[in-house]
Amino acid sequence: MKKLTVSLFGIVVFLFTMSGTGNALLFSDTQFLLQSLSGTGTYSWDHATPDNFVVPPCTVNSAHLTIVGWLVDGNNDQVAVEQTLQGTLNNSWFIFPSVSIFDIGDVFVSWPVAGADLHVSLNYIETGWCNSLYLTSSTFCLDYEPAQAPVPEPATLLLLGSGLLYLAGFKRKSKD
């Protein structure tokens, strides 16, 4: 009886591990900008996206853009992602960097081209006390679920049937 219980437990564990569910994938892309900006203008850059990422069928759980800069002042430096205004950079003190985090999940309502770059632009006005802005880096983080493949019913039935045949053979062997 002990062997049957151990065997049955092993089969159940095997079945559960073989029938895994889709997990969310994390993707991150960092661009080191290292740009000093002064006066008024627009600065743009791109972030890579996953090669298999298309909405739908992929589902976006969350998406964030983090921009790090120095000497940010005035709350007048506007960040746009895919031509959608996301907000302004946070002010910074002279000795501390500005870290601005934007929730950009709304940009991915529809993302039709797999592997297309994410376009980011910064409209800046640097006429304040330091007259310059220094961008250090930009990091794009994406948490998404890829498209789920259809459940292969014949393979599932074959796996279940082979497990039942094993149990029947094990029970017959223990009776002999």
Largest sheet: 4 strands, antiparallel
Counted by DSSP, the helix tally is 2
Low confidence ranges: none
Amino- and carboxy-terminal Cα gap: 14 Å
Report on the structure:
The chain is of the alpha+beta class and 176 residues long. It is built from two helices and eight strands, in the order H-E-E-E-E-E-E-E-E-H. The protein has helices at 2-18, 153-175, and strands spanning 25-37, 39-47, 59-70, 78-81, 84-88, 98-103, 118-126, 133-145. It has a four-stranded antiparallel sheet with strand order 1-8-3-6, with no helix packed on it. Strands 2-7-4-5 form a four-stranded antiparallel sheet, with no helix packed on it. A hairpin with a 2-residue loop joins strand 4 (78-81) and strand 5 (84-88). Helix 1 packs antiparallel against helix 2. It is elongated. The model has no long low-confidence stretch (mean pLDDT 82).
